[in-house]
Amino acid sequence: MIPTSEIVTERLRLRRPQPMDAELVFEHYARDPEVSRYLAWRPHVELAETRDYITSCIDAWHGTMNRPYLIDADGQQAIGVFDLRLRSGPGAVSFGYVLARAFWNRGYMTEALKAVVAQALAQHDVWRVWAFCDVENHASARVMEKAGMEYEGTLRRWAMHPNVDPIAPRDCRCYARVK
Ligand SMILES: CC(C)(COP(=O)(O)OP(=O)(O)OC[C@H]1O[C@@H](n2cnc3c(N)ncnc32)[C@H](O)[C@@H]1OP(=O)(O)O)[C@@H](O)C(=O)NCCC(=O)NCCS
User: Fold this and answer.
1) Model confidence, pTM
2) Centre of ligand 1 from the C-alpha of residue 10, in Å
3) Distance between CA 11 and CA 13 in Å, rounded?
4) What are 75-111's pLDDT values in tens digits?
5) 138 CA to middle of ligand 1, Å?
6) Which domains does the chain have, with CATH numbers?
7) What is the pLDDT of residues 117-146, one digit of tens each?
8) How many CB atoms lie within 10 A of CB 113?
9) Which of 64, 65, 68, 126 shows a CA-CA span of 20 to 30 A to 16?
10) Cα(124) to centroid of ligand 1, in Å?
């Protein structure tokens, strides 16, 4: 799959990252412990951590593994990230997403995911779009359901989410849409 450099929906623009996004991402959500609760990273304490992360996002666009899109919406830039993972199995793509808390529950991530799933499955070489979320991350599970993905089962002891358990991998719910 060769993803486009920009995905535009009714209310959102998913675009390539740029260095100036670091300050906005830090302010909007990277330091918010509620946002990273069920994620693989700990809340950022210093802006320098977010700068390193944005640099890795910019670099990723030169590689073949993933495409982290910054999300603009509601007249605001960099309110979240949609990370499209291109090598997640034979003919499969996966993803991760995060949104600043001030923008939750407006249907934004469902809108983004629907667009990405449609674009991915329209590619001749993509047969499966899938992702997982922590068993307690009900909002994320709901987003995947609303985007037309099906629950496939629970992957036990699947992923480290250190903010809820720093020692043991967490059980995660797996969702997919296939053609
Ligand atoms: C998960 C996340 C991206 C959802 O984004 P969003 O734009 O708020 O999602 P939407 O508005 O499209 O949909 C959210 C749905 O979850 C529901 N929801 C929210 N919190 C919930 C909770 N605690 N329990 C159950 N459902 C919940 C909402 O009611 C809504 O469903 P509805 O339309 O049927 O009412 C956002 O909450 C987030 O960034 N969380 C932190 C990062 C994260 O966990 N990312 C996912 C990792 S797998």
Assistant:
1) 0.97
2) 19
3) 7
4) 999 999 999 999 999 999 999 999 999 999 999 999 9
5) 7
6) 6-178 (3.40.630.30)
7) 999 999 999 999 999 999 999 999 999 999
8) 23
9) 126
10) 30
